[in-house]
Amino acid sequence: MKLLIVDDEPPARAKLRRLLSDMPGVTLVGEAADADEALALAITHAPDAALLDIQLPGRSGLELALLLPPGVVCAFCTAFDQHAVRAFELNAVDYLLKPYTGERLAEAIARMQQRLAAAGAAPRRGALLTALQQLQPLTGDWLVPQRGGGLRRLPLAEVEWVAAADNYIELHAPPACHLDRRTLAEFLAHPAAKGFVQVHRSHAVNPVHVLGIAPLPRGEAQLTLRSGETLRISRSFRDALK
Where is the Response regulatory domain (predicted)? Predict the structure, then answer.
């Protein structure tokens, strides 16, 4: 099992390295101090699993779990117990409270290995979901992956705006936010996304959800959406909504 560890505290990472070195079947492929570094390592090393702290600089470990490539199983190592329910909603394999023992960590690693083995029992499933997602319909719907596996059909009419998140996009359909592993440019180039307008290098908007536009200094502007969300229109995109 190729494992990635993510913790902003060097002593915590050192403890994990020491304990993991004695565990058979575990290869540490990288360690990161924040979510952005972790995502870069995930792309480079394709880990099978990740041990995540929750309180990280920038994006939290919970947000990172949603952004990791499909198929990466996650367990959380944290000093805070109030996030456990949300962690298991994200299909976490385990939730370790600091300080934990080597035996407790070994238990979590065994659970991750079991989850991976169960996923490997259906080797064509991941390929099938990937193939289905590539066949995006042209009817104004979008197929979005679910954390526990499978795809869901999301009507794009419900999506207020789409944000770039590295090699992912966030489809904001309040009160929900859905993640998809493609770039904003790829989304906007797809016929199903016809009608969405890019108003910033990192986000595009569904104009039917725009309630108002207010000018800002230096030629920029601000959009207000039905949900109350506000988005900035950069100067280079300000003509897009005329």
Answer: 2-113
